[in-house]
Amino acid sequence: MYGGDEVSAIVVDLGSHTCKAGYAGEDAPKAVFPSCVGVIEQLEDSDDIKAEKESEPVPDSKNGGKPIESDKNKVKRKLYVGSQALGYRRDHMEVVSPIKDGLVVDWDMVDNIWVHAFRDRLLIDPKEHPMLLSESSSNTPQQRERTAELMFEKYKVPALFLAKNAVLTAFASGRATALVVDSGGGSTTVAPVHDGYVLQKAVATSPIGGEFLTECMIKSLESRGFVIKPRYSFKRKEVRPGEFQTVDLDIPNTTESYKLFSQRVIASDIKESVCRAPDTPYDESSYANIPTTSYELPDGQTIEVGADRFKIPDILFNASIVQTIPGMESFADPAPSIRGLPQMVIESINKCDVDIRRELFSSILLAGGTSSMQQLKERLEKDLLEESPQAARVKVLASGNATERRFSVWIGGSILASLGSFQQMWFSKAEYEEHGASYIQRKCP
């Protein structure tokens, strides 16, 4: 269908935290930007925007997050996508994510994210390129059909393929059978892949991902009196040459969600710089007098991070630690039902066929941004050795390169879409016109 090397397929991996897009056959995505969107809701008549804005705040999801274009309230949404647009503070801009638990809840925003990826970042015309999109293992048939409809009707792509995240990660490391532990921004998923197919019945998920850990980091620092000032909230003034003083700016119309978004950017950098998974399960007494690591915030104040360096990553292994973080107690109810990584892995393997369990134990793949935390691989391997049956040979594999772990899904897609033997697998426009969107269930398992 597509001859030889001139596939020029585009691979898009829209995750809960970042969207990765680029050409198949390359070793890293060209465009990487946040998958949340800035939303400003405006009333059509520009003169009384201000008056009405103050008298009546427009709720965020008036009708389930669908674009609001009825005549009654004449509200127009202006959407801002991409790191640059979000880095710029605007009055009344809410930051909203169109993806919840791996499923799309707002197609209008996803549409804008795709447009930004194709037109602004990759500078391509989607009509000319087949598209390989990644999807979560729990994606519903309705979502897949909707994706196919949008791609063929709106972007007029010549061909489309939807591949499961876990399968792509397995391909990225050159395996057809593996247990993929994908710890991303929004959640952590453990999915067994056998011969290139996800074993749906054995997929385990947990709501603890990178963003949750970042949230814990912010709360934990605040409880010790460190306030993370977002970058837009201060400016630096030179008092004497080489000596600066920070002046706080008062910006009343900034929304809470934008402030949180800006704080998260900083907190997640703190998390990535200083955190590492502890070798043994965390307990207060043994980590109480551990040497601290200093980190300089954008506004110039230096904070010392001590036990939090180990406490926060350990939430992945033991969710009940969350209750000890001030401000996160509301999370206490579901905590016992949330399992740690080792339990999820063993539970998932036990749901698989007896014949493939040994093979899964010996190829556990770590992927996703959160998995590039230091010592995570060693700790997971150690815990699994203690908990797994005697006969199993446990081996946790992770690419030594953090970029590869972060982009493993995208890299797998890039490998898959550039294979010669894959070219007959595309769901083409002709097939779509003949069989309709539901045919995607047969073409993309």
TrEMBL record:
Keywords: Chromatin regulator, Cytoplasm, Developmental protein, Nucleus. Residues 44-70 are annotated as: Disordered. This is Actin-related protein 4. InterPro entries: Actin, ATPase_NBD. The keyword Cytoplasm applies. SUPFAM superfamilies: Actin-like ATPase domain. One of its GO terms (cellular component) is cytoplasm. It comes from Papaver somniferum (Opium poppy). GO terms for biological process: chromatin organization. The keyword Nucleus applies. Involved in several developmental processes including organization of plant organs, flowering time, anther development, flower senescence and fertility, probably by regulating the chromatin structure. Belongs to the actin family. ARP4 subfamily. Pfam families: Actin (PF00022). It is found in: Cytoplasm; Nucleus.
